[in-house]
Sequence to fold (668 residues):
Amino acid sequence: MDVLWGFLNQNLSGFSDLPGWLQTAIPAAVCGVLLITFMALGPILYVYVETKVAGFMQDRIGPKRVGPHGMLQTVADAVKLMFKEAIYPAGADKKLFIVAPCLVVLGAFMSFVVIPFGARGVTANLNVGIFYVVAVSSLSTVGLIMAGWASNNKYALFGAMRSAAQIVSYEIPAVMTLLTIVMIVGSLSLNDIAMAQAGGLHRWFLFRYFPIMPVAFLIFFTAGLAECNRAPFDIPEAESELVAGFHTEYSGFFFAMFFMAEYTEMFVISAVASVLFLGGWWAPLPALQQIGPVGLGALWLIAKAWTLVFVMMWLRWTLPRLRVDQLMHVAWKVLLPISMVLVVLVGTLIMWGPKNGFLWDPYAAWVLTVGVFLLLLYWLVAARRYNARRFREAAA
Amino acid sequence: MTAWFYDLWYGFYTVLVGMKITWRHLFVDKVTLHYPEEKWTLPPKSRMRLFMKYEDCIGCGQCARACPVDCIYIKTEKRPPTKPAIWAADGTPIKLDTHVFDIDMSLCCYCNLCTYPCPTNCIYMTPEYEFAATDLTSHLYHFAKPNAKFLTVNPKPPAPKPAAAPGATAAAAGSAAAPGAASVAKPAVPAAPVAKPAVVSVPPGEPIAPGAPTPVAPSPGTTPKEAPPAPGDAANPAPNVATGTPPKAGGDTAGTGGTPPPDAVDPAAPKE
Fold:
């Protein structure tokens, strides 16, 4: 926003003569429109990718009819949902019923304000960035409970209760792992955290203090998955138990808003995880940071976030849903103790150990990254070879 | 404590195993078949819609008796000696005029039992399976030529007729042009006798009329000509499974043909 303000101030004659509030409001409005467009159109892409990933993982091909390779399927779905009638169940608290999805969407959207898409490409560079994200993303929990309560439906209420229990449980390990990052950087601003990871892949916090921060990343990602109510932590909307959980009674555009919120929150969690652990807008190699004068920071951040979104989808179509007691077990007896130990370890290392990570961090980082990619590639090739062998045998 | 660590590692490890499996399935060929565009090649003996080649039917009614669900309705009468003799494709003389040969595919259970007893192999299953309809009565197919409603192309190559006459090919040509000429030719149906001096019992110019408005009641066009020994055609032909067998034609089957309930016939059918 500051960049935009500076740009307008220099290039638009008369801009500096405007009243002060307008000088702030115009860049803010432009940023807001950009972000809302990105957020509102994003779920169309994510739902399409999700259906495709789901299909491919189940040896199907997913949507294929609407548009080339079914690309317009989600557009058609969105249009359909927009024009559908919104039904209010009998006995529902209509005001809360309408406010709830808006609140959920708001909670998902507001986190976007602090996500840095580049060194200066941040809408609002809050000095309490992470704190703001944690606080605001909890807003959607209020929306979920509101939706469950206002629906006048036992399944919706069950879903809302589960959602509340789940998010309260999983925010603690998530925030604990955030603490480690904050201790390393010494700042709560997402911009500062990203800046501290400059210099290539081995400087990312994912590989700092090698065996420690990867574990922190796993905990944060798991907890984030639970906060998005995504499988395997989707018990608030467990369709085999609770019809659809908190959005059982919703239809039409309000239902679409819940969907939008879920997928936006996926992106937000992934983007925050990218900024915290995967270097934000920094490229894995400094040489890839820009092509000539054109910086690729935003693209790198979005690519990392989308990779994590893909991993979320990958997990969803791999793992079965946890039971409620298993969920609580994982949160309170596994993630929380480990994250507490991590906080203590990282604090100790910062106080008395090496400040900038262990000596073996860069080697471990590159070996691990290359190893993971080679493993995926190997499995890819193995799958293709298995495929060819299967068809040869079928033909014989 | 050891168990806790073991569980932790085991949970992490199994998640990775599952992710490996789904990752590999991303790159395996898909099993989806785009149905209307792609179709399975059916196995060679697949049993789909029944087809009856009317020119070869001798009206013996064995298929109707073999049918376990009684979905074949046949009515025949003795062919008067004044008409010229005709033969089926394999040389079997056709001594009966088949006035009604209806198959209700909505009842058919696709067991293929009707095709085995047929002496002239004129009834068989075709690989045609896309004949869904919104109206149940449109699954009642009339194969008897003057009223025949069956307009699909015969999937089998036509067998050479023993005494091929130009009428046969003309009839085939006429049936090909049927949909257009049908409405014009319909008034002519009652006037036309069943048999003409051709091998096929359809006059050369006679197209296949696409059925009366209500296909359940076969058009009585041909029956008033020769005083029918069988029960009235205008009535529902359904219950009379074997009544079509006239007394003389199947001398061997005449005694049993008319009376036995379908249940009595069923056990014998598979043995044939």
Notes: The first strand of chain B starts at residue 50 and ends at 52.
